[in-house]
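Chain A, query sequence.
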Amino acid sequence: MSDAGERYLGEVLRDEMIMKDSILAVLEEGPKTVPEIALALNASEYDTMLWVMGMRRYEMVIEVGGAKGDGYCQYRAIKAH
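Chain A, predicted structure.
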């Protein structure tokens, strides 16, 4: 655990399968940045970034456009075929 208060990485990754449905539900409203998703989930940006990056790796979400002034890209859900 770091001074910033992040949870142990194993705990965050264990929660990924639980949180993916919640993240996809948030993205049904439209593309959002990691901080916007974290706010909607009442989760830390650190945890949310790890979850979104995992979902990106497995093609559940995709970046929309480039990084904005705050340095964050927006993500949207990829519809299952």
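Strands lie at 32-33, 61-64, 74-77. Residues 9-77 form a domain with the Arc Repressor Mutant, subunit A fold (CATH 1.10.10.10).
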